[in-house]
Amino acid sequence: MSETSPKPLAVLLAFAAVYIIWGSTYLAALLGLESIPPFLMASMRFLLAGLLLYGWCLMKGEAKLTAQTVGRNALSGILMLFGGTVSVIWAEQFIPSGLAAILVTTMPFWFVLLDRRQWSVYFASWLIPGGLVIGFIGVILLLAQPGQTVLVRPPNGQYWLSIGVLLLGGIFWTVGSLYAKYRPSSASNTFNGSLQLLAAGSFSGLTSLVSGELAGFRFEEVTLKSWLALVYMILMGSILTYLAYLWLLKVRPPAIVSTYAYVNPVIAVLLGWLFANESLSGRQLLALAVILVGVLLVNLPKYRAVAKSSEATI
């Protein structure tokens, strides 16, 4: 499959994975944190997923280690998975999850600002910048509580530190994603993903050890619900969806791929409505529509390009 002409169905399925499955892992992470500390949970999630992928690559004869392959993937994995993903889990201990989700949705803006190679695409018209702004407004409308401001400072010394960690985590994820796109190793997508997961899992485990998380922790006290959530995050979040994300980075502009950050909260709200008896207000329905309009606008230039290409081949 060429990088310039991926199959439309493959692109659709990959976007469905990063939009829907990663949206569901917010709930899974919350269930896992009931009885597993955050850094330890991230370490187990990434290490086990990485080992499974590495074993698969060994069976297929793709596991060929070189200094370039290890070095580039280790840097990408630590920046994206530890710097980006784990920062969200850590910060949600000290700030409301709604505010955390809003801050995470600043990520597409980092992609637009830092990905200079794609500026000619992003700024060719108002559609992509305008869609990003509209999607961000929709997320705030979706998650902000009526009558309250999400930026009221509570009496918590960790509040502003957590906000800084989240924003920095978004930058780390962006830099790691761009590095993986523009400085890839020559290995397969699966093998690259396995090394990135192993590097992030090792770094998360070291952080868990240094931070003292393991003091007083007992594996026998982990609930079945947390184990099941961890298995789901390993198989669906860190294997299937992460590989889909790495592939999308190769075939689509990163800022467009990053629109998953807008759709994930939508999925989280819908899952809460379907399975946790959470209410879904008219304001939230309006917010969902605004978010989807924003995502549509961001992707519209690519849809037009595909349509023109199809017409030209007829």
Account of the protein in words:
The protein has 314 residues and is mostly helical. The protein is built from 13 helices and no strands. The protein has helices at 8-32, 38-60, 67-91, 97-104, 107-114, 119-122, 127-143, 159-182, 189-211, 224-251, 254-257, 260-275, 282-313. The longest helix has 32 residues, at 282-313. The protein is globular and about 50 Å long.
List the helices and strands and how they pair.
Blueprint: H1 8-32, H2 38-60, H3 67-91, H4 97-104, H5 107-114, H6 119-122, H7 127-143, H8 159-182, H9 189-211, H10 224-251, H11 254-257, H12 260-275, H13 282-313
Q: Runs with pLDDT <50, length 5+? A: 147-153, 309-314
How much β-strand is present in the residues?
under 5%
Question: What is the distance, rounded to the nearest whole angstrom, between the alpha carbons of the first and last residues?
Answer: 21 Å
Structural class: mainly alpha
Q: Which of globular, elongated, flat, extended, rod-shaped describes the shape?
A: globular
Rg of Cα set: 20 Å
What's the quaternary structure here?
Answer: single chain
Please report the total strand number as a whole number: 0
Proportion in helices: over 70%
* Annotation field: number of helices: 13
Q: What can be said about the biggest beta sheet? A: none
Mean pLDDT: 84
